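Support request, priority: normal
Reporter: lab tech (M.K.)
Component: structure prediction queue

Hi team, I submitted a job for VWFA domain-containing protein from Gimesia maris yesterday, and the status page still shows it as pending. I've pasted the exact input below so you can check whether something in the sequence is tripping the parser. The sequence length should be 244 residues. Please let me know if I need to resubmit or if it's stuck on your end.
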Amino acid sequence: MQVPCQYCQALVEHTATSCPTCGSSFHAPPQLSVVRPAVRPKLQVNVELAITVDRTGSSQQFADGILKSVPLITDQIEAKARNLTVWLQSHGDEDYDQHPVLLTNGGTAVQAIKDLSHIVFAGGGDAPEHHLSGIEELANSVPWNADPQQARGALLALTTADSKPTGSGRSARELGEALRSRGLLLYLICEPAPQMKELCEGAGGLMFPICNDPDPKEMQKIAGQLSASIVQTIATGGTVPLPV
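Reply from support: The job had stalled in the queue. We restarted it manually and it finished. Here are the results:
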């Protein structure tokens, strides 16, 4: 019995392993194994991200870095989280009537970035500023979901210089411990000043030290590391931020 060659259409015996006319083999070509990158599932919980930004004139020097890094952070978290909800606050020097202002109240990342672009970095007295009070105010303003099976909360502060005491009378360490007891992941992008270090230690948080005039590229690198830490920590069920 003869059949047409699948390559040149010449008739060949059906038992033939090659075509005498064109020389083509009838054996199926070896299958190449295609290695596909593993599909990384999204986090199975919602992410609640609260951000407070020092709006005093001291932050003017790294305002450009703030404006570029926050979108990088939210974009990378949003790509991995089931859902991302953002609270954005600005704070300053309360001795000069720069009290915390909630700009984005449980909104989208897009809205938070838009609100961030409207912050004016000016005013305040000489350092230190009221960073601790701003962080405490934001932590108390957000209606955090208490069920870690549904959502995880992270608080990010971008500051310069050191902080004055809290308005509540809590020490920096006590405030940090309170944040940790509530299951919140604390991240600080700041100058490594004593009060901020104490806060971070109390919370078991992660600090990304910067100078008071950081390069925007440095801020973008930090943004990548910070968002990766949030995703990795939540994905592994961590209770304190994991360094990356």
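Confidence is low (pLDDT under 50) at residues 28-33. The first strand starts at residue 2 and ends at 4. Let us know if anything else looks off. Ticket resolved.
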